[in-house]
Amino acid sequence: MSLSGEVHELPCHLQPIFKNSGDYKEGDYPVAGDLCRGMICLPVSAVMTEQEAEYVIGSLRGVLV
């Protein structure tokens, strides 16, 4: 198992579905942008085993300590 979480670099108001609306632009919600740039999405699955979950937790601890 590899640690391949997703990166959500675009806040909701900048997602492609809203691109053509013209209602939102970069910088409208600076806190949302800051939060997205600093977010980590850990792998999760309905079929994840306890051993896989422990691997994720251990790997995260390894980079935070």
- What best-fitting shape do the alpha-carbon axes yield? elongated
Number of helices, where a helix is a run of at least 4 consecutive DSSP H or I residues: 3
Share of residues in helices: 40-55%
Which class best fits the helix and strand makeup? Answer: mainly alpha
Short description:
The protein is mainly α and 65 residues long. The chain is built from 3 helices and no strands.
What can you tell me about this protein's structure?
The chain is mainly alpha-helical and 65 residues long. The protein has one domain. Helix content is 42%, strand content 0%. The protein contains three helices and no strands. It has helices at residues 16-19, 30-37, 50-64. The protein is elongated. The mean pLDDT is 82.
Task: Give me the secondary-structure topology.
Elements: H1 16-19, H2 30-37, H3 50-64
Keywords:
mainly alpha, 65 residues, 0% strand
